[in-house]
Amino acid sequence: MTSASKRALVTGGSAGLGAASVGWLQANGYEIVVLDRDRPWTGKTPVQFIRCDLASRTELDDVLPDLIAAGPYDLVLLNAGINATGKFEALDPRAHIDILRVNTEAPMVIAAALLESNACRSGGAMVFVSSLSHFTGYPGAASYAASKDALAIYARSMRKYAASRGVTLTVAFPGPLKTDHAERHSPEGADDSKRMDPDHAARLILADALAGKKSSIPGAGNRVFAVIGRVFPKPVTAVMRRLIYTRLKP
User: Which residues, listed in sequence order, are joined to residue 171 by a DSSP beta bridge?
Assistant: First the structure.
């Protein structure tokens, strides 16, 4: 890496929004470090791959020195996330724990470690990927919604500290995307025509982050939904329950 090159860390970069972000960043001259459980497919442009199952705190602690050494980073995208849908009491208790570890604990630990070790360049950006569900209820995915809410609150609380290190923090709230992950956790027969293309979402989120914006809700429809969800939380949650929860597979 030359001193003039840009460098980015993407967690969960092997699929979905993460993979789309890797593609956008590479097209814009970034060298990429991907932290994921699965090796990403990156076409002709190689990335530095660090393997880690973020559901394991032991594995995460083991790779933190490698993540720090692979920097310094101009941009960090804390994107990795998992879900589990269905009736809360019917889900394996382990699923709730894994969701909180991957979606909340891991990005919190990584962010703190990178900032404390000055592994982010001054003038750099860090992005926490929350969810549009932050603005309403998410019946049928309570642990996922809780994990993304907690992440958004943590990110906001870290802004002043990050700023002292010269790093801006952006919280992204993407809505439903056209990804395999979304398909697996959607009601059977759900129409994916209204889901956003992950490449489009990645472009919007990264543009907001590089502009230093505090939050990013990609897409006009999603921004309208966020406003309605805040103003009328109970009716919107009732609609979400009818559209999602009552149609989930048992």
Answer: 128, 215
H-helix or E-strand spanning residue 202: helix 198-210
Confidence category of residue 245, pLDDT binned at 50, 70, 90: low
**Residue in 242, 214, 228 with CA at minimum distance from that of residue 175:** 228
Q: Where are the domains of the chain?
A: 6-247
147 CB-near residues (< 8 Å, 6+ apart): 81, 99, 100, 102, 103, 104
- Helix (H) or strand (E) run with residue 8 in it: strand 6-11
| Helix ranges restricted to H, 88-141 | 93-100, 106-116
Task: Please name which of 120, 110, 210 lies closest in space to residue 155, comparing C-alpha atoms.
Answer: 110
pLDDT value for 142: 83
Q: What is the distance between the alpha carbons of residues 216 and 23, in angstroms, rounded to a whole number?
A: 19
Q: Residue holding tokens 């592994």?
A: 119
Give the list of residues 6+ apart from residue 52 with CB closer than 8 angstroms, or none.
35, 36, 37, 59, 60, 62, 63
Structure letter (DSSP) for residue 196: B
Phi, psi of 174 (to 5 degrees): -70, 150
| Mean pLDDT, range 201-212, rounded to an integer | 97
CA-based R_g, the chain, Å: 18
Give me the CATH topology for the region 6-247: Rossmann fold (3.40.50)
CA distance 130 to 171: 7
pLDDT of 2:
43
